[in-house]
Amino acid sequence: MFREIKKQITLFNVLILIAFLIFFIALLMFMWRWTYVNFSERFLVRTSQSIINSEKYDGRKAARYDGYSSNYEYILWDADHHAEHMKIFNASLILRGHELLQDKKFNETFRDFEVNHLTYRVYSKRFKKGNEVKTLQIFQQVNNERAFTKTVFVILLFFGSAGILILIPISYFLAGKSLRPVKQSYENQKKFIADASHELRTPLTVIQTNVEVLRMKEDEVLSENIHWLNNISSESETMSKLISNLLTIAQADNNRLIFQKKLFDLSALCAEVYDLMYDFAKQQDITLKSDIQKDIEFKGDEDKVKQAIRILVDNAIKYTNAGGTVTIKLTTTMRSIQVSVTDTGIGLSEKDQKKIFERFYRVDDARHREEGGFGLGLNICALIVKQHGGKIVIHSELGKGSTFTIILPKYSL
Ligand code: ADP
Q: How far is CA 255 from CA 119, 195, 252, 372, in A?
């Protein structure tokens, strides 16, 4: 699909280039010809004027004014169409000039024609000398002008076409480069949809199976089958959590995640999370400790920041074996506020540390599925922290434990 788009962009670019080249060549040729013809016509008019003014109609005398002495020929016709004076190198011009005399409209204008494979431009001027109306025809060979114009045209066309040929692969390469982020985002989206569907299928299957079992036990008392209902309830809860996570991510992707930022007591918030998670940790035989600096305020979305810290504490408890410790710490430095969650759990390898913020990434799929994670928590946590201008830093050692630190700017906007 992207290859097709890339080709289309390249084609579009090339068509624009060709259109531009045609326009450019046409404009240049027009200007070139206009200048050249204009120059030649002015020369013919000026020369004819000086011939008329010179008493002896001496071509050489007239030529003094322009330096184009051998560059023109002329015939001066009297009223009876007899050639009175001439400076002609090509005798065929006399016959042609005589023909042109018949055309009464041909006066003070120019005409191009061919004689013996040579192209001439002729200017004709009727004038009165005494009582007699005479006609001066002045010819100029324009073969060089034509050949020169043709050469310029061929050169322009050659270099223009060569330029386009060179630009085709460059344009193809640049199209690919500019499409790369779009392609990446498209691939991510595809993977996201596939992963989300996959995750939703498991609880749905469990719910369907339990409903089937209940159907078969239609005649039995409900209290004897509460186990199946509990299964359905628990899986519905899992699905609801997953859908809520997916919604958060989708909103963040569309820049529609709303953050209501205001100043709040971050110390109180950390203490609240500690209280909230204490019993949960205890159930897993994990000691939850806290080291919270007092009266630290932060401007942000309180609920979202709470969600981010909860995700870290939740993970720390989930990935720490019984007997371990999890510590929530809140400190400040000159410029930042740091919320860290340290555990004495299973730890993370260097490779996994880089990957755990990716959507649906779980270090050990089999084990973590049992823990009930989808691999979305840290991604959401990172989204929230990023929206507050902060970052998350990990220090972890396999088998020894991890510290996840949220670093927030002290003076956030
Ligand atoms: P999950 O919902 O699966 O926990 P997360 O995005 O929160 O998803 O975490 C991604 C993965 O990172 C987890 O599956 C787990 O393998 C690893 N992980 C997260 N926190 C910790 C931790 N404190 N110690 C060890 N591994 C962790």
A: 71, 21, 5, 28
